[in-house]
Amino acid sequence: MSRNPKFHNRTKHIDVCYHYVREKVIQNLINVKYCASNDMLADVMTKRLSKVQFEKLRNMLGVVDVKF
Q1: pLDDT tens digits, residue range 10-60?
Q2: What's the farthest any 2 CA atoms get from each other in the chain?
Q3: Which end of the chain is flanked by fewer CB atoms within 10 Å, N or C?
Q4: In sequence order, which residues have a C-beta less than 8 Å from that of residue 5 and are 6 or more positions away?
Q5: If you count DSSP H runs as helices and E runs as strands, how many of each does the chain have, helices first?
Q6: Considering the entire predicted model, what is its pTM?
Q7: Which residues contact 68 (CB under 8 A, 6 or more apart)?
Q8: Is the dihedral of CA 53, 45, 43, 27 positive or negative?
């Protein structure tokens, strides 16, 4: 939506305030990039993940396991 402002029935519920991002993309003030679901770093804080996925995202954040 940030790059293609074409109206869709599935997006008509989005409030006008959310079009702010689209305006900033048009003004070249921000650059929106695709991020695959498996690489969403916020998931490590917001979702229940498998151990493998949790450790992958934790490592991507640079967090290390400290053992005493």
Answers
A1: 666 666 667 788 888 889 999 988 889 889 999 999 999 999 999 999 999
A2: 56
A3: C
A4: 22
A5: 3, 0
A6: 0.54
A7: none
A8: negative
